[in-house]
């Protein structure tokens, strides 16, 4: 079994949150946890790539490779799939092409559009990230962390929040 998570000395919700309803406080804490978990995940990926001397690849670039998978996609598709902001995708794709991890090709029908796919080197880097995540999943499963509440239930709740946020953005525009 894993040891309980250490208590973070920083408050997990703003000091004035005590007056808020329990569910609101829990939501605010979830937002902070999501942000910290995302940063930790990027740090884990960074550590994984620094060990075998692949320090040229940033964690965000490694996640782009991972999320591209076997598909041939456009930068817009990557933006809609992942956690990437507009110009960052273009910048990172240019870097990935220059490093030889991604092949790009202009679309025949729309010359402004570029399709990208992983090169064999990019596929090898993607596999490194995939193996890292598999090792983590196996370790978490053995520790029992993923059982209470069951991770599929947690994922369902996260998808509902994601859908709510997406609806809020669409409502604004």
TrEMBL record:
Q: Which UniProt keywords apply?
A: DNA-binding, Transcription, Transcription regulation
Please list the GO terms describing molecular function: DNA binding; DNA-binding transcription factor activity
Where the record annotates domain HTH marR-type, the positions are 27-163
What is one process in the GO biological process aspect for this record?
A: response to stress
**Which PROSITE patterns does this chain map to?**
HTH_MARR_1 (PS01117), HTH_MARR_2 (PS50995)
InterPro entries attached here? HTH_MarR-typ (IPR000835), MarR/SlyA-like (IPR039422), Tscrpt_reg_MarR-type_CS (IPR023187), WH-like_DNA-bd_sf (IPR036388), WH_DNA-bd_sf (IPR036390)
The record's section on Pfam families has: MarR_2
State the name under which the record lists this protein.
Answer: MarR family transcriptional regulator
Q: Name its species.
A: Paracoccus liaowanqingii
């Amino acid at each position: 079994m894993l040891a309980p998570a250490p208590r973070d000395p920083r408050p997990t919700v703003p000091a004035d949150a005590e007056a808020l309803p329990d569910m609101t406080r829990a939501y605010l804490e979830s937002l902070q946890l999501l942000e910290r978990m995302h940063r930790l995940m990027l740090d884990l990926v960074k550590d994984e790539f620094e060990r075998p001397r692949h320090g040229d690849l940033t964690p965000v670039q490694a996640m782009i490779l991972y999320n591209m998978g076997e598909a041939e996609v456009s930068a817009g598709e990557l933006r809609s799939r992942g956690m990437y902001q507009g110009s960052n995708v273009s910048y990172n794709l240019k870097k990935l092409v220059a490093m030889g991890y991604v092949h790009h090709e202009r679309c025949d029908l729309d010359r402004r559009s570029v399709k990208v796919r992983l090169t064999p080197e990019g596929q090898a880097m993607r596999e490194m990230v995939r193996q890292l995540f598999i090792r983590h999943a196996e370790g978490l499963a053995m520790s029992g962390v993923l059982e209470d509440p069951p991770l599929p239930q947690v994922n369902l709740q996260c998808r509902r929040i994601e859908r709510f946020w997406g609806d809020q953005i669409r409502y604004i525009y």
